Recover the amino acids of this structure.
């Protein structure tokens, strides 16, 4: 448990070092995600890696535990919105409508692109 | 026992313990209600925990800074939770690899749509330029979006507000919208909500379907990468 959380933090830390060190405009958790993914894949090929948190599903369990409560992690930042409401009162309604419209358009365009490309591919590549 | 209950309150209201406890208990309650309604999109646990805690802070005259002193321990876990997305990604790697082309195209098209639509709509609504710039990166996770906003000379705190609202709006809209469009492919549904509404959309996707959650997590991560590259370019083209 502790080692698994340690490994997750270590991946993020390494991501931070890489992003800062190379001056990359990439968020460190995303680099950490890539690192942990590479470790998990490498474990399948390099047997000695499969020990500790990578051994018996430790890091898997810790990760799933964290992801099961992903919503909770947005609450502190969300409360910040309530505190800043006076700042957006001037344009509050307009901002809400603009955001809602943009989210709606983005969802439709993205999902349609995905579905259309997936269908075209399955027509070209018969299973 | 303290003789004066008021001085005990003054003490407790300044400790991280109280606000961490409030955050966890209020969320546990809103999440239980959300579960009891079969994850009805309108009973979004983040949205309702937000305003309940907000009212609580207002009623007790507590500043957000004091509250965050306790809540920061939860907030901190956002980074590690993003790293943890590697696990479902690894477990579903075959499924993900098989959908690599639809994902790549949906990513580029969706990312451009997210930026262009919000800038155009904001200009149409006659919002001032600082607001337009601050809204542009609203579809990516707060940390990244605030950095982009700053480099555009927007207002990072307004961007943070826009990011949270975008997340909640997407989480509420996505299920009814996809059902109405008749889209049953949970890979596509998850990918769209992760791209449009970052982590809050991803959290919603995980509540609905494990595969949707995986694809939402991928979309969120990739969108954070390419939005950082595309926003400056598109904004200079659009905002004149």
């Amino acid at each position: 448990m502790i080692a698994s959380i340690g490994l997750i933090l270590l991946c993020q830390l390494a991501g931070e070092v890489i992003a800062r060190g190379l001056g990359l405009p990439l968020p460190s958790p995303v680099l950490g995600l890539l690192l942990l993914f590479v470790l998990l894949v490498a474990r399948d090929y390099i047997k000695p890696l499969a020990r500790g948190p990578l051994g018996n599903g430790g890091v898997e369990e810790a990760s799933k535990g964290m992801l099961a409560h992903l919503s909770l992690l947005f609450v502190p930042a969300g409360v910040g919105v309530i505190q800043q409401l006076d700042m957006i009162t001037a344009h509050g309604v307009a901002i809400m409508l603009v955001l809602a419209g943009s989210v709606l358009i983005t969802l439709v365009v993205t999902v349609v692109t995905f579905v259309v490309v997936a269908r075209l591919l399955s027509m070209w590549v018969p299973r | 026992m303290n003789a004066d209950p008021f001085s005990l309150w003054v003490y407790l209201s300044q400790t991280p313990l109280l606000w961490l406890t409030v955050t966890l208990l209020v969320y546990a309650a809103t999440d239980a209600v959300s579960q009891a309604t079969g994850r009805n999109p309108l009973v979004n646990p983040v949205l309702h925990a937000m305003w309940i805690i907000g009212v609580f802070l207002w009623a007790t005259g507590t500043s957000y800074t004091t509250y965050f002193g306790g809540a920061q321990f939860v907030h901190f876990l956002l980074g590690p939770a993003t790293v943890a997305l590697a696990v479902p990604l690894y477990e579903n790697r075959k499924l993900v690899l098989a959908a690599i082309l639809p994902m790549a195209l949906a990513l580029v098209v969706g990312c451009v749509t997210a930026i262009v639509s919000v800038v155009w709509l904001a200009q149409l609504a006659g919002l001032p330029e600082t607001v337009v710039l601050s809204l542009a990166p609203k579809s990516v996770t707060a940390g990244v979006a605030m950095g982009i906003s700053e480099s555009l000379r927007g207002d990072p705190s307004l961007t943070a507000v826009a990011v949270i609202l975008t997340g909640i709006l997407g989480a509420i809209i996505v299920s009814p919208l996809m059902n109405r469009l008749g889209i049953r492919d949970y890979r596509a549904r998850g990918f769209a909500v992760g791209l449009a509404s970052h982590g809050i959309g991803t959290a919603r996707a995980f509540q609905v379907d494990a595969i949707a959650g995986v694809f939402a997590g991928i979309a969120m991560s990739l969108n954070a990468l390419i939005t950082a590259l595309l926003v400056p370019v598109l904004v200079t083209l659009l905002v004149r």
